[in-house]
Amino acid sequence: MSDERIYPVKPEIAASAHFNTEGYRQLYEQSINEPEIFWAEQAGAFLDWQHPWQEVLSYDYPKGEIAWFKGGQLNVSANCLDRHLSLRGDQIAIIWEGDDPDQQQQLTYRELYHQVCKFANVLKAQGVQKGDRVCIYLPMITEAAVVILACARIGAVHSIVFGGFSADALRDRILDADCRVLICADESYRGGKIVHSKLNADKAAAQCPNLQTLIVIEHTGHEIPWQAGRDISYRQAMQAAAAECPAEVMDAEDPLFILYTSGSTGKPKGVLHTTGGYLLYAAMTHKYVFDYQEGDIYWCTADIGWITGHSYVLYGPLCNGATSLMFEGVPTYPSPDRFWQVIDKHQVSIFYTAPTAIRALMAHGEAHVGHTSRQSLRILGSVGEPINPEAWEWYYQVVGNSRCPIVDTWWQTETGGILITPLPGATDLKPGSATLPFFGVQPALLDHDGQILEGPGEGILVLSHPWPGQARTIYGDHARFVDTYFGKYPGYYLAGDGARRDADGYYWITGRIDDVLNVSGHRLGTAEIESALVLHKDVAEAAVVGFPHPIKGQGIYAYVTLNVGVTGTDALKKELAVLVKEEISAIALPDIMQWAAGLPKTRSGKIMRRILRKIAANDFDNLGDISTLADPAVVEDLIAHRLHL
Ligand code: WT7
């Protein structure tokens, strides 16, 4: 498109950045032409290895087999902590900003190291061994960093479940990974309200027969129910724990963590990441994408329950010896200037957040930004969903005072780290485009027959070669891994997104091409929400689709067919909402529920979601061919009863 606005690289940024345009081009080329040499160099530069690898890369996409740095040995927590002690033991590793603006903490690398060693001993005392899975259900508190790194230290595989997920969702994830230990908080604060972490954990734990231990971190310190024999006080256990704990020597391909994410069908899948490749990729992308420099104060607003929190609140920054800010609260509490207040208070220089937050704050008006300084900012980042050019411009001009490049980073839980992104000193920016591939990343566009599209055009986004941060399997279901990512277009990793490539080779992500929704940057499967709705005795059938939502990016539109004789009431809608909250989370609540007399189905009984999406989007003119429907009249009825926000 010729009307696209371009923001050229700023000379003052390029002058001190790790890469300028030419530097990026050259290294990118090398990373593609000589990948093994390239990645070996990076692995040596970014990580401390206890034993060298024998083979940089071996892979077989059709079998879903991917291995990086085979034979190499290292420990993630030693790379994030021990090796920093001599140089930066007294540097702040984590700045914690509470939900309450008066609450804050700082942990140096040395303090964090000591706490991690102690908690590693606590886990060992509970019988946790290398390879065991530990479930972590925590708010954004410094202890989360401690327990995560402690798992890595002893080779236990952590499975973090977002603190906003329900007890049932937590239970399913504990069972799937067969975790024996669960770590929760007593309670936490979010936007001034109490979140009952322990109550949810209790409810989940009661339904997990193999779960032996619940370690409770005292955060609010309020009175909570206690099950003697099972529950352990974090504070007491830490007091009793020995201070030294050697880091377990791990193979590069040993599992580091499992993280559940939604797919287009079935239950959430446990995406598994391993040790060497993941850490290298998280650290390297953190340094180069955000142009991280010594002395930066870096803040990624993501929750540790999502991959962004794993890679860019903890592992990447700590591996690089950075100071990473952890925020317990929400952007609008106590007022919609909270982000900018925190930036001024801690002199944040790199800020990474989601478009949905930007749009929400934009809606509150510029006045909430204008009275803050934000002079400390140098780089802005965006992640989680496409950023609309309007939000991009506001972020750039109002938040960054037109001084700070925005890196719009495209990636996924499965990719471990950022794949398509600008580099601050190297890439001219176009609002709404994630721009160009990171080193070693080879995106391609396919048509529906799986043919490669050359030059400008739009298609199915795939990656033709592995990168070190790539997921290795779905825990307990390798067949699903192969099927989901490598089955449909053999020889490629299928991301599940569509994209357009322009004449400059820039990528514009157009959104998911499967039945996965992206609601406020949260990934949800339509099937999961439908399953929750049909649990109700009065519901015959449900179909869920996304629709354009001004703040959330995508909203959730649910068409619900009731059993014969049941009348749709507001009370029933409330019951369904409770069900979704209990089964999944408040983030999965439908924005709109429409009672549907019938759903558009083909004669073979397949629901035609394409039509439901059009109706939800108010786009009635392009419904396409509906003559193949078993009963075309249902479409008229759905349109007649379409509801609005
Ligand atoms: C999906 C992955 C990336 C970590 C957080 C979400 C969408 C992500 C962008 C972006 C357009 C984006 C994609 C992707 N997405 N970043 N910069 N531009 N879309 O991880 O929960 O695994 O979701 O988020 O649709 O497939 P996730």
List low-pLDDT spans: none
Beta-strand proportion: 15-25%
Number of helical runs?
A: 21
Helical content, roughly? Answer: 25-40%
In spatial order, strands of the major sheet run 12-11-8-6-7-14-15-24
Biggest sheet overview? 8 strands, mixed
Structural class of the secondary elements? Answer: alpha/beta
Ends distance: 32 Å
Whole-number average pLDDT?
97
Give the beta-strand count.
31
Radius of gyration: 24 Å
Small ligands present: 5'-O-[(S)-butoxy(hydroxy)phosphoryl]adenosine
Q: Give the overall shape.
A: globular
EC number: 6.2.1.1
Pfam family, one: AMP-binding_C
Catalytic activity: acetate + ATP + CoA = acetyl-CoA + AMP + diphosphate
GO biological process, one term: acetyl-CoA biosynthetic process from acetate
Topology, element by element:
Elements: H1 11-16, H2 21-33, H3 35-46, E1 55-60, E2 65-70, E3 73-74, H4 76-80, H5 85-88, E4 92-97, E5 104-108, H6 109-125, E6 133-137, H7 142-154, E7 157-160, H8 167-177, E8 181-185, E9 188-190, E10 193-195, H9 197-205, E11 213-217, E12 231-233, H10 234-240, E13 250-251, E14 255-261, E15 269-274, H11 276-289, E16 297-300, H12 307-319, E17 323-327, H13 338-346, E18 350-353, H14 355-364, H15 367-370, E19 379-383, H16 389-399, E20 406-409, E21 443-446, E22 452-453, E23 457-463, E24 473-474, H17 478-486, E25 493-501, E26 507-512, E27 516-519, E28 522-525, H18 526-533, E29 539-549, E30 553-562, H19 570-583, E31 592-595, H20 609-616, H21 633-640
The structure holds 5'-O-[(S)-butoxy(hydroxy)phosphoryl]adenosine (WT7).
